[in-house]
Amino acid sequence: MTTSPRIPHEPAVLVLEDGSRFPGRAYGARGTTLGEVVFATGMSGYQETLTDPSYAGQIVLQTAPHIGNTGMNAEDRESERIWVAGYIVRDPSRIVSNWRSEESLDAALERDGIVGISGVDTRAVTRRIRDAGAMRGGVFSGADAALNPAEQLRRVTASPEMAGQNLSAAVSVTEVRVIPASAERIGNLAVLDLGVKQSTLDNLAALGFDVHVLPQAATFADIQATDPIGVFYSNGPGDPSASDAQVSVLREVLDARLPYFGICFGNQLFGRALGLETYKLTFGHRGINQPVVDKTTGRVEITAHNHGFAVEAPIDGVFDSPNGYGRIEVSHVGLNDQVVEGLRAHDLPAFSVQYHPEAAAGPHDAHYLFTRFRDLVIATQEASK
């Protein structure tokens, strides 16, 4: 058992772009941070949330009241650093009590320069976001907590909105990285890193793929250079409408009839490649408890989500791709709000889902999707012989 440093009672304030103010205490690094304020409903897995590159540019509020009791460790990290723009919690744990813990959460936040706030009425903030939608906000602590409220609000409203932002370059690898297959090898898989989680790469390697992780600016020629038997587009932050280059590359992948699997951001870009539109959700889906129905089997899955944008498509029946890729069907639907949660091509070896089948942390209901992709790759190889 490790005792964390005593949580100080230095003042801090959360300011939303509509002028709402929520006082609290400084937590993590001191200063100012700006971003889109969103809430995540998972009751566990805060370390995976914090280190998920998909949360870049977002100030994350945990709806679970007690955060930090199991500390932080290197094994469960989804990347090499904490990516959230800021962090909002109600009751941070003053004591770390877990045999796997290597440091406290507040120490990790401070080390990575993440400005946070604790002691906030997180229920009130969540209700505000649910009513008005995700909005820009700022956390002000240290000397900045004493700034004039009008100046704090000015800084918030002067910050960029999430719509229209391309954030993949900020979170992607800059050089090719290869993860060898950890099961019987079946071939090379090209992964476009738009903000991929380490657990996703581990799951793909466990299927028998030599996983070639490519920078987000990779061209189709770069993909071909890996001699791939399939292509995977990862999760990631930002607005899919601002990723024209990645959509163009994906269309070349589809034209070459390479097996394709996309998750989260990769689902949105698949929709755009097919000729569909995307739109911003009011407050998004973030958490490890989201019910989704697989229309193919009728099975309901409890799934892990992190997305603020979605694909616009008819959820019933089969329709033609506006870009000429044949018959398309919405394969998965969110049961809370009927949002498109998956797409399947009938005339191409390609499908995608809007959520995280690796679910780290979270339920394993959707893990079968990795196996479905491996089977699709193998079937495509057999058909080409």
From TrEMBL:
Biological source species: Microbacterium esteraromaticum
Record-given protein name: Carbamoyl phosphate synthase small chain
Signal peptide: none
Entry-linked InterPro entries: Anth_synth/Amidotransfase, CarbamoylP_synth_ssu, CarbamoylP_synth_ssu_N, CarbP_synth_ssu_N_sf, Class_I_gatase-like, CPSase_GATase1, GATASE
Active-site residues from the entry: C264 (nucleophile), H356, E358
Gene: carA
SMART domains: CPSase_sm_chain (SM01097)
UniProt KW Transmembrane helix keyword: no
Similarity section: Belongs to the CarA family.
Region of interest (CPSase), residue spans: 1-185
Annotated keywords: Amino-acid biosynthesis, Arginine biosynthesis, ATP-binding, Glutamine amidotransferase, Ligase, Nucleotide-binding, Pyrimidine biosynthesis
